[in-house]
Amino acid sequence: MHLFNTKPNGMKVDKAYPVAGLLLTVLVLQACAVGPDYQAPETANPEQFANAANPEYSTQAVDAEWWKLFADDTLNSLVEQVLQHNFELKTAEANLREARALYQEAALNLLPTITSHANYTEQKRSIGSLNNRNFVPRELKLFNVGFDASWEADFFGRVRRAVEVSDDTFAAQEATVRDVGVSLIAETARNYFELRGLQNELAVADKNAANLTETLAITQAKLAIGRGTELDTARAKALLDATLAGVPTLESAIGQA
What we know:
Elements: H1 16-31, H2 73-85, H3 87-108, E1 113-124, E2 139-150, H4 158-224, H5 230-256
Antiparallel strand pairs: 1-2
Helix pairs in contact: 2-4, 3-4, 4-5
């Protein structure tokens, strides 16, 4: 009988301590995870928006290539050129490619790392050193191919948080590219429509000037034969001068558009 043996007969308490220690370690590591999981804040939305039932407002998604609805080949060509050659858009697309690469790199850290190695050795013995009784070949070729795999356990969530940050950055860059593209298309279309509007105004002004020139000629002819008045002639001339005065302004605006 052992006086200092405190274990009851048949009980294996020496194996309970490692299991308890392992569970405690797992709980501690989970408690040390980097940062809490993101919880989206609740947003209070009204039950109904103003003018929601107004038929003038549509809830359908806008066509991504809305400018093509105008069936204007010139506008389509301008938009295509802007999207292909704009420096700001190219910069945003480059940032998007960089963000995609960083996300892929961060995501790979969650997977095991596999490395391979191979080597080749060739040995050739001299004829004098050969022992024919052992049947040793004169030339020996040795190949060695192997693979190594390693994986870092992400106990503290550092890698997962890095992947989340990279994913959010990639999404933000995607939104930036879309925003730049939408802004460029809208600005191009606006400038194009303004130019077309100025050109139409100039065409109308030229037509009005031609009509007023004929009107002035008629009033002058009537005045010459005594059937017109000087007031009618002066009024026709004033209208013609006012119309012609606006032509240079329109031409200058078209040149700057």
